[in-house]
């Protein structure tokens, strides 16, 4: 495996309704906006490999721990996100084009820095959503903005957002937390419900297909554990979803004009913050450069 992957957990279990449910003797996974995490040392029953583990295993959201939320906020790899991720997300939102004004939806907003930047950069209201109260507390404290409203959500429902009310929507490093295609499809369909016809939905994520050789790649949907990156020995566990899976989910949810962009350092030179670009020699800096931007238009 590559140096970033410490383990892959394969799940084989019976289908829902069978005589004997399977069990998983390893870390138990559960889903929140922003990622799937693990809790060690327990025996959990899996009703179905197609069932969202957050429903099969009722345990607490780790981001409710202020220490974990703060550590995630300070994760140094976020510099790469601001170089090869968010500037390309902003461009794909295409909010500079003429059109009726309206709010933008940030799903899985975390500690709010991206939502605040969208509000500042495009002079637009932002509805920022996360399931973690601890993350939202950090967002309201560290990244307040008069045009940003922060909301706590439960599960994949956005019932407080009116249908067809959003000018655009985006999520960053969120879909890797979806435990199944069905869960991903449900969330993307809910986001589509909130969008006006013609609105853009943009997904930013790491491109693990580039990170890994074909012989090293796990199966679609497998759990993959990575070092947390803050020097504490913590790990973060997400699902392996090829970028092509996201494109298929967008199409299934009714989005058209689906585009995939893989950012480069050369392109970042025109988009990223000049101070960040000058902060180091990015051509020799350590860190993965495999990012992908997907976007689609609400029909």
Question: What can you tell me about this protein's structure?
Answer:
With 299 residues, this protein is an alpha/beta fold. It has eleven helices and twelve strands. Strands 6-5-4-7-8-12-11 form a seven-stranded mixed sheet, with helices on both faces. A three-stranded antiparallel sheet has the order 1-9-10, with no helix packed on it. A two-stranded antiparallel sheet has the order 2-3. β2 and β3 form a beta hairpin. The longest helix is centred in the middle third of the chain and has 14 residues, at 181-194. The chain is globular. The relative contact order is 0.18.
Topology:
Blueprint: E1 7-9, E2 22-32, E3 35-46, H1 53-56, H2 66-73, H3 78-84, H4 86-93, E4 104-107, H5 113-122, E5 126-130, H6 133-142, E6 148-152, E7 166-172, H7 181-194, E8 195-206, H8 208-211, E9 223-227, E10 235-239, H9 243-252, E11 255-261, H10 265-271, H11 274-278, E12 291-298
Parallel strand pairs: 4-5, 4-7, 5-6, 7-8
Antiparallel strand pairs: 1-9, 2-3, 8-12, 9-10, 11-12
Helix pairs in contact: 7-9
Question: Which features does this protein show?
Answer:
single chain; 299 residues; alpha/beta; Rossmann fold; seven-stranded mixed β-sheet; 11 helices; 29% helix
């Amino acid at each position: 495996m590559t140096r970033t992957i410490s383990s892959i957990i394969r799940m084989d279990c019976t289908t829902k309704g069978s005589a004997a449910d399977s069990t998983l003797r390893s870390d138990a996974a559960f889903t929140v906006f922003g990622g799937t995490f693990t809790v060690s040392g327990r025996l959990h029953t899996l009703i179905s490999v197609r069932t969202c583990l957050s429903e099969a295993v009722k345990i607490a959201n780790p981001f409710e721990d202020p220490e974990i939320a703060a550590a995630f906020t300070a994760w140094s790899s976020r510099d790469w996100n601001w170089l090869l991720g968010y500037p390309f997300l902003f461009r794909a939102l295409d909010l500079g084009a003429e059109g009726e004004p309206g709010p933008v939806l940030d799903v899985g907003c975390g500690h709010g820095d991206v939502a605040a930047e969208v509000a500042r950069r495009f002079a637009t209201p932002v509805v920022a959503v996360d399931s973690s109260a601890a993350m939202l507390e950090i967002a309201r404290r560290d990244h307040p903005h008069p045009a940003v409203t922060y909301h706590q959500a439960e599960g994949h429902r956005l019932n407080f957002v009116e249908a067809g009310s959003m000018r655009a929507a985006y999520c960053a490093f969120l879909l890797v937390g979806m435990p199944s295609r069905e869960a991903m499809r449900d969330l993307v369909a809910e986001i589509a419900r909130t969008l006006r016809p013609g609105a853009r939905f943009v997904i930013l994520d790491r491109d693990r297909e580039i990170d890994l050789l074909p012989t090293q790649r796990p199966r679609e949907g497998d759990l993959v554990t990575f070092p947390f990156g803050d020097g504490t020995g913590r790990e973060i566990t997400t699902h392996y979803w090829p970028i092509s899976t996201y494109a298929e989910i967008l199409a299934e949810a009714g989005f058209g004009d689906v585009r995939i962009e893989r950012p480069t350092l050369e392109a970042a030179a025109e988009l990223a913050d000049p101070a960040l670009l000058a902060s180091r020699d990015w051509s020799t800096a350590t860190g993965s450069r495999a990012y992908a931007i997907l976007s689609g238009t609400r029909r």
